């Protein structure tokens, strides 16, 4: 099953590439783009109806945006104060600072600001604080004066707005106004607590024209980009909607959760492949069927959820892969304990070699780390390939690891779960930013695996199954009054509440 893809929001690793090309191709000077960036910031600042605004400016063009903002709002608000963390290092930024001074904007240095903060008696309260210190081009450690100012800002009773990206991921923004296009850095796990709501600033040309200047590195998925498995034909029977077979293991509850999720998301049948553990230790849900062998009409297999890491698990992996390789329309979801299997590399090579196979992997960061080490995935010179990657390495570079996997296995769809989830399929990357911290609970991943399997069973392509399942799963996580109360079966119950 394939469906029409709507216009997707583009995401770039380095938005300077399309920006540079736009300047060249459309004769756009830097000062025009800076003015439009400042106009976008002005809109968000004035929406707060402030009387007093503090703007923190760095030395680069981010600082130039801040100076331009200060000039634009001067006279529209009662008090505007600019703190300069160094002299402008670009011609455009220097000009903006000069224009600020010419109309009377008060600009002080970092040292003077530090003294004012220490002497709180002379410190006015601010309604809005704008971070224009560093943009996406910044790498390294924040200077201490900037770090101190940002940490001070984070505890103030003010609205906080970041220009382009929160500086050094230290500024806890309520809103980030990013310039020109979305950036992948805004969707890193550690940034989720800092970016706030994200708004894309129009730099003077439409987003479609801007994005024509360079191929995006990924796309942000939204509700309009997915298709739920709604049943439109009336003369049908359960066999028309596929049969999911979940391979059970040591923790058979995980398989039951996955099978139940598959039924909830439209599969006509869900069977749990029984073994000695499931037969002995757990009573199956009445809506799930039980079998000792793969049902003849299986249309999608799921293995990994609660599988365990025993010799029996290794045998189960080999058995499942062999079965899928002989299916007329091969479809499989690989989850959880699969990523610790000795058969992992062999299985992936076999499945990737089948051009018609629909394969989805759903690792969380620790499982992605196991995958990266098993396959010796490299990301340029960032990480020494001779050393084992740590989970923290993977979390910091999750997008890059996922991209490297996709290059090596282009026929496999990878769902790299995290605070934001990345989906890599072929040469395309997609990001879902809708997930909530309520999903940090045992069994949530089994629900997602079941949703993916259900859609594969119903004929979806691996990419479309992954996008729809991930978005539905993330959206369901928002439906709880209290984020701590989410449970796997509660999550399943809210899947349809999109």
Short description:
The protein is 37% helix and 17% strand. With 498 residues, the protein is α/β, with parallel strands linked by helices.
Estimate what percentage of residues fall within beta strands: 15-25%
User: What structural class results from the helix and strand content?
Assistant: alpha/beta
CATH class of the largest domain: Alpha Beta
- How are the strands of the largest sheet arranged? 8-1-10-19-18-17-16-15-14-11-12-13
Q: Could you explain the architecture of this structure?
A:
Strand 14 (300-303), helix 10 (311-325) and strand 15 (331-334) form a beta-alpha-beta unit. This protein has helices at residues 16-26, 30-46, 61-73, 91-103, 110-118, 144-154, 207-211, 252-264, 276-281, 311-325, 344-353, 365-375, 391-396, 398-408, 444-457, 462-476, 488-493; strands at residues 9-12, 52-57, 79-84, 106-109, 128-132, 159-163, 175-179, 182-183, 197-201, 218-220, 243-247, 269-273, 289-291, 300-303, 331-334, 358-361, 413-416, 421-425, 428-432. The two termini are 21 Å apart. The chain has 2 domains: 14-215, YjeF N-terminal domain (Rossmann fold); 223-493, 3-Layer(aba) Sandwich (UDP-N-acetylmuramoyl-L-alanine:D-glutamate ligase), CATH 3.40.1190. Helix content is 37%, strand content 17%. The model has no long low-confidence stretch (mean pLDDT 90). The chain has 498 residues and is of the alpha/beta class. It has 17 helices and 19 strands. The longest helix is centred in the first third of the chain and has 17 residues, at 30-46. A 12-stranded mixed beta sheet has the order 8-1-10-19-18-17-16-15-14-11-12-13, with helices on both faces. A 7-stranded parallel beta sheet has the order 4-3-2-5-6-7-9, sandwiched between helices.
